[in-house]
Amino acid sequence: MMGIWRRLGAFWQGVTNGLSIGELQAAFRREARGSLAVYTAETGRDVGQEWSEHKHRGRVVFTVIRAMFNRLSPARRVLFLLAVVLALAPRTFQFQSADSHVTIDAPTDIAAVALLILLLVLELADRVGLKRDLEIARDIQSMLLPEKPPAIPGVDIAFRTKPANTVAGDYYDAFLRPAPTGSASASHLLVLVADVAGKGIPAGMLMANLQASVHVLASEPVPLHDLVPRLNRSFSWRSGNGRHFVTTFLGELDPVTHDFTWVNAGHNPPLLVRVDGTIERLVDGGLPLGMFAEARYQCGRDRLHAGDTLYIYTDGVTEAVDDHGAEYGDSRLERLAVTMAGLNAAESLSRLFTSVGQFTGAAPQSDDITCLILRVGAPDTIPIPA
To answer: Bridge-partner residues for 369, per DSSP?
Structure first.
């Protein structure tokens, strides 16, 4: 008997991937809400709100079923309608003439179930194929992102992203590039965080386009105020001349003098938390990349001092919502950043993602969440990444 229970326990662990009942319930709520949003995105109605307010629940159910039906292929719609007809048809048919009476038992309910199972098998086959393609796209995308930051004495960097879907539209990077002519350093550190408009496969493809452009153009020893317009023109030409755009923050640090220049191309203004706890927002820049090929950009300049910490993030952080629709918000992020002054970049990043996760709870993630943290300190106080 104990062996049976052990096998059942192992089977259950395999089915649930080790998740607890509470975690399974939370995951089911997230997936149900996400699926409902997908099916009803084109209806123009907030069916979740209507259901919670007990408004015409029958109409809500009909709206969801119709939305699901409309997303089927024409052949599968016919299968679904045939299954519904068979399910509603009488099981017994009687034929009577003047001299005879015949009763036929037709298993219409079994036929209806068989058709629904066939429809489910077809949908699952599509989902398995799509999931395989998405996993390949995710693996390719992960290869475009840096595994670890460059080792620079006196500079501590950590980055992380949490995609809302299998393929993300957020991009982050940190690498050394040739310093512009006249610089005291041989190379400068380029850091950037970008958020492509949209989500899923289209945004992921544009993200790959941006990544390639950044690495090609940044390999030339040009100053940031020349690099960004070139990057904007390149992305604009390859993304439909303004039909697609990407908000981007690019910053360049001289690792010797700690002089920092930046361009904010329509992105969330990063937080610069000074060692004394004061907060500055880095807003100098211009329009998102790709909107207008000849857009002009303003370059900001400052110097980072020991203990200063820079938070570069996408709007998935501040616009993360809880079960009641409330946003995480800028003020909450600022308060948290001030309390993390004594932590290194990796610890700060971990605490930030924990804070956002605790705030959202079981609410579905609506956007990619990405953050890059850069902290400056004396060379003997900042660990060099392995």
So the answer is: 162
For every residue of 338-363, DSSP letters joined together read HHTTTS-HHHHHHHHHHHHHHHHTTS
The number of domains in the chain is 1
Q: What is the pLDDT of residue 113?
A: 75
CATH of the domain at 192: 3.60.40.10
- Specify whether the CB–CB gap between 84 and 113 falls below 8 A: no
Does 32 fall in a domain?
Answer: no
Q: Is 172 helix (H, G, I), strand (E, B) or coil?
A: strand
pLDDT in tens, 332-386: 999 999 999 889 999 999 999 999 999 988 787 878 899 999 999 854 444 444 3
Backbone φ and ψ of 177, nearest 5°: -135, 160
Counting every residue written for the chain, the total comes to: 386
Q: What is the pLDDT of residue 207?
A: 86
Q: What is the pLDDT of residue 386?
A: 38
Beta 170-178 vs 259-265: how paired, if at all?
Answer: unpaired
Beta strand extents in the chain (DSSP E only): 92-96, 101-105, 155-162, 170-178, 187-196, 246-253, 259-265, 271-273, 279-281, 285-286, 300-303, 309-313, 369-376
Whole-number Å distance between alpha carbons of 184 and 256 = 8
* Beta-bridge mates of residue 327: 321
Cα-based angle 315, 319, 322 (whole degrees, multiple of 5): 150
In sequence order, the 6+-apart residues with CB closer than 8 A to the CB of 146 are: 159, 172, 173, 174, 175
Range of the domain at 266: 148-376
pLDDT at position 77 is 79
In a domain, residue 117? The reply is no
d(CA 361, CA 358): 5
In a domain, 295, yes or no: yes
Question: Which residues does 188 contact at the CB level (< 8 Å), separation at least 6?
Answer: 176, 177, 178, 179, 180, 252, 253, 254, 255
pLDDT of residue 380: 44
Give this prediction's pTM: 0.72
| Radius of gyration of the chain measured on its C-alpha atoms | 28
The ranges of the chain with pLDDT < 70 are 1-2, 23, 27, 30-58, 60, 90-108, 128-131, 133-134, 137, 240-242, 378-386
In a domain, 208, yes or no: yes
